[in-house]
Amino acid sequence: MSTTTLDRPVKAPAFRQISTGRRIRNHIATGTMWLSFLIALIPLCWVLILVVSKGFDAVTSSGWWGKSQKGILPDQYGGGVYHAIYGTIVQSAVAAVIAVPLGIMAAVYLVEYGRGWLARTTTFMVDILAGVPSIVAALFVFALWIATLGAPQSAFAVSLALVLLMLPVVVRSTEEMLKLVPDELREASYALGIPKWKTILRIVVPTAAPGMISGMLLAIARVMGETAPVLVLVGYSKSINTNLFDGNMASLPLLIYQELANPEPAGRWRVWGAALTLILIIALLYLGAAVVNKLLTRNR
């Protein structure tokens, strides 16, 4: 066995020293990004501190989470927002039951099958829905569901409007998650003779499930605070209404709007409390989306 001896020692690669100008530009860019971040954070923190400071007394009061406003006078403190929480959750849940399956199927079609004019039209319509204001969606449902078909104003009409707002979020988030699934998984499944529909159902969708579920929860959180649909399509009620298809039903955005017209201090007390309650519910949904995504990714 022969040993080769190098005539010259190997020198470490030489790197040119960073010039002073590049260092200065790097520091300026870094400082600008941090400054932009802090500027964007200031209004967020200000709103959060304001809502928490003014709404904390309400959300920690006795009966806030378990009672309604039935029998509570405009100038009277007390009662709770149980009826509004119920309405917000029910309206959003019904919208999710409709929008999530439609959004998933549309995303699967666009990623796995979408070719030609139909795919382009579907993508175009999803882009349009993503930019539609909530008041336009509410007026569309009012014109079609109530004015044309003669259905009464109800919580279900609100859910239909929320479907239009939720659908593009579900489609886009699901579409991006499906695109992240490696093509090697699909090709391996096809090589085993598994048909395409079963590959999508058994391989592609389960692989993308963590991100898809997170997108669904974020879509629900996105529509929970919408005010225009509840203002146009349903009236306010101080008590719980379990009939989804008829009668007034309260929600947190509608309660806030209703109490803003109340000049009494008790009205402002309820406004800030309802605002903080809505923020807490949406924050829990965002936290739940992160936890679900982490757990499913870990167990996969």
What integer value in Å does the Rg equal?
27 Å
Measured by DSSP, the beta-strand proportion falls in under 5%
Kindly state the number of beta strands.
0
CATH superfamily: MetI-like
Provide the CATH topology: MetI-like fold
CATH class: Mainly Alpha
Transmembrane segments: 32-52, 84-111, 123-147, 153-171, 200-221, 271-292
GO biological process, one term: phosphate ion transmembrane transport
Keywords: Cell membrane, Membrane, Phosphate transport, Transmembrane, Transmembrane helix, Transport
Protein name: Phosphate transport system permease protein PstA
Describe the structure in your own words.
It is a single chain. Helices cover 72% and strands 0% of the residues. The longest helix is centred in the first third of the chain and has 40 residues. It has one domain: MetI-like (MetI-like fold, Orthogonal Bundle), CATH 1.10.3720.10. It is built from ten helices and no strands. The mean pLDDT is 88. Helix 2 runs antiparallel to helix 7. Its main location: membrane. Part of the binding-protein-dependent transport system for phosphate; probably responsible for the translocation of the substrate across the membrane.
